[in-house]
Amino acid sequence: MKGDDSDNLEFFVEGIVICLDVSPGMRIKCCSDDPRTPLQIAIECIQWILQRRIFSESKDEIGMVIFGSETNNPLFKGNQYRNVSIFRKLEVVDWDFDIAHKRERSVCAYR
């Protein structure tokens, strides 16, 4: 239909949730050629995605869930959803989505 808002793409916003494994195995270097751990590589990839969204002035909302971490989520009951944390709720991405600095205090993996 002409004039129908559903045909206008500027009204559509995506919601993207990034899931990141921060368990101890992700902190072990696996390649002798690359000094980075799989966790460091994953964080660099996520930062690249976030930077592209910021520079394109995207209104899409991005959230992040980490697993292999302390438990911090509203669904935790008994043994369900253990070691899963909401790192960031769905929001328009901005420079406060700083994984590299926040990860040290919020991704203390279970030992």
UniProtKB/TrEMBL annotation:
Residues 16-96 form the Ku70/Ku80 N-terminal alpha/beta domain. GO terms for biological process: double-strand break repair via nonhomologous end joining; telomere maintenance. PANTHER family: KU AUTOANTIGEN DNA HELICASE, X-RAY REPAIR CROSS-COMPLEMENTING PROTEIN 5. SUPFAM superfamilies: vWA-like. It holds the Pfam family Ku_N. One of its GO terms (molecular function) is telomeric DNA binding. GO terms for cellular component: Ku70:Ku80 complex. InterPro entries: Ku_N (IPR005161), vWFA_dom_sf (IPR036465). This is Ku70/Ku80 N-terminal alpha/beta domain-containing protein.
